[in-house]
Amino acid sequence: MAKRDYYEVLGVSKSASADDVKKAYRRLAMKHHPDRNKGETDSEKRFKEAKEAYEVLSDSDKRAAYDQFGHEGLQARQGGGGFSAEGFGDIFGDVFGDIFGGGRRGGAQVFRGADLGYELKLDLERAVSGDSVTIEVPTQVSCERCNGSGARKGSEPTTCSTCGGAGQVRMQQGFFSIQQTCPACKGVGTVIADPCDACHGRGRVSKTKKLSVKVPAGVEDGDRIRLSGEGEAGRNGGPPGDLYVEIRVTPHKIFEREGADLSCEVPIGIAVATLGGEVELPTLDGHVSLKIPPGTQSGKVFRLRGKGVSTVRDRRQGDLFARVVVETPVNLTDEQIRLLRKFDEMVKAGGDKHNPRADGWLDTVKRFFDRIS
To answer: Helix 60-77 crosses helix 41-57 at what angle (to 10 degrees)?
Structure first.
C-alpha cells in the first residue's frame, strides 16, 4: 500500500516552518496516542504515521531529500531502512514528552519551592489607613548546615548511577522509547550516601519566619499581597516559591463597607423624628452633626458626601450613607402611657393631616376587600 504524503499526514503545506511542523505533530500525537485510544487500531496507525512524517520533516536534510525525490529517494538515502527506532526515541523525548510534562533534560531537575498562603485579619480602620504588620509564617527554608545540598558537611551528593545525573531514564518498550523520571533519584540526578544530620538529607528544614508586610491604604476583604521569594525553599537549587497574604477585614460594630462607601444605622427617638433635631454621627474621621428634618420616617437614608473611604484602586473618597431607624420607646410609666394614648387620640382626630401614609393605606385595604366581596 502506497504511503501517504508526509505533508498531508501532518496537515501542513510544503512551505510550513519547522515550528508549524512541530505544532501539527503535537496536535496529532495528543489526539491519537495509544494511551488515550486503547484498542483503537485506526488511531494507533495514524499515531505511527504522524511520527514517521515528523521524523522526516523535522530534519532539514531528510526533508530536502523527500521534497526532491519523495519516499523512494528518502529510502535510497537511508539505505532502505526506513526511519529508525533510535531516531524516534529522540522525537518522543523532545516533542511528545513535552506534551505530558516530561521532555529530555540536559542535567538534573530542579524544583521550585511551593507557594504559601497566609490569612491576615485587619479591623476596618487599619484596612482603610494602611499599616505595616509583622507576621510569622511556618515554612521550609534551605538547610544552613549543608547549604541545601542534603549531604553531611565534608561530603557531597553523588551522581545517580541509574540515570547518570540526567534525572530521567529512557525505557524501551518494543518499538517505542519512553522517557520518564528516574525512579532511583526521583528526578534530582543525585543521591545522598551520607545525609546531613540537621535536615536528614532533605536539604530543607522547618522554620517560622518573621516577615514585615506593608499593607497599602484602602485594601478590601479578599485582596492579596504577594511577597516574592518568601514561600518554601526550592529543591536541588530551584528558586523559592512566593507568599500570598490574603486580607480578611473583620466585621465592624458600626459600619458596613462596600467599595469606597460606608453605611450605618442611626437610631432616633419619636420626638426627634417628629419634631426634627440633630444627632451626633460617628465617622472614621471623627464625629459630625446630622440634621434630622421634622416628620422624618423610619428607614430614611441620608448621604454624607466624602465621609466614606478610598480604595487601593481609586483614591477618591466615597460617601457615608446613614439610615435612620425610629426607635419605639419601651418600659413606659403609667403617666407616659396615659399621655401617649391621649396624644394618639388627638393625632387620629386629625385624619390624614397627621398620618397621610396610614390613612391612605387603610383606604387601599378597604377598596381591596370591597372588590373581592
So the answer is: 110
